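pasting for the record
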Amino acid sequence: MAGDGASITRSSASTIRRTTRFVSSRSGSRSFAIEPAPIILEFGSTIVRVGYAEQFQPQHLIALEDSIFDHDDNNKPKTKTNVTKTESQWYLVLAPTMEQIYDRLMCKPSTRRVVCVYKPYAPVAFQKALTQHLWNLGVPAQVHVDSLQVVPIAQGWKRGLIVHVSREEAMCACYANGYIIPSTIQIVPTGYKALLHGKVNETTGKTTYTVPSSPSELDSVMEEKLLNEHDPGSLVVALLMCFQECPLDLRAQIVSNVVFCGDGVVLLPDLPRRVVKKVEQLLERTQEEGSLEPSAPSSATPSATGNPVYAMIPVNWSSLRPLAARLTLKSCAPHRADWISWVGASLWAATWNKYDEDETPIPWIFLPSNKAETTL
């Protein structure tokens, strides 16, 4: 019996020592903050996509009262364009939209962080007004993300070329090893709106747009607006310029992974194939150097309001011809082309949301402690 008692005592002491070591090591480590999934808000030209991270599609689509960018039928900025709106004006424009967002989500703003996704050239006044709205609602933290930056996350590729076609404009940029290469960003003022017929409602005064009913008419407009190699505002020109600005050691890998996304791809599903085919034909064509020299339009110069600099075709593009054999169009599948940025932001936020606050790569901006800083 005495031996049995001594054995039990030694076993208990050993267990206590092991437990003590475990508790002491855990108590000295940093704690992990597990929070509810953040809210993802993607602001497009005319719509806001809303939902929770960890999902593979937005739960709600809310129409914007004013487009972030608005152009007339000639694709030139209106005299009273939204680019010139002040922060206070944007605050009033966003007020009903922000109210709808939380009504649809049925949650308190103070319970979840927010990831805002929009194009990199959105007006600064718009960005400030959106930030102020979230602070005034009591959101604990927020982060603002480039919509192009998160596209590869949805599909898991490291190098490629992203082409985004929206209502008012189209843009393309090269992506390599987690970053957009700034020098490759090309923007042209030719979105899918340029291919549509506009009709003014006499009662409301609003303009509605419809796709041309005749396929031949749609083809001719597409050739003139988006596929014209002599027009600096065409999407074909933007891709050629993007190729030229891409670093030489990355060109071959990037052109083999060309991804089209945006509302324009959903509305015109044949557009990516036609654009890539046109670029491939131009690169394979045997011409003398400098034969493609379109005249630069007035919109090609940067303005004081911060409008993007539109793409210009390279004068000497003979060095791009070897890329024709590698040029490959990839699909956004399994995601929709107009939702892929939202999905990428959702996966990004869901992956890093549960990690230690000191180690997460998400650059969260926390609610200012001074209440005076959160009022407009």
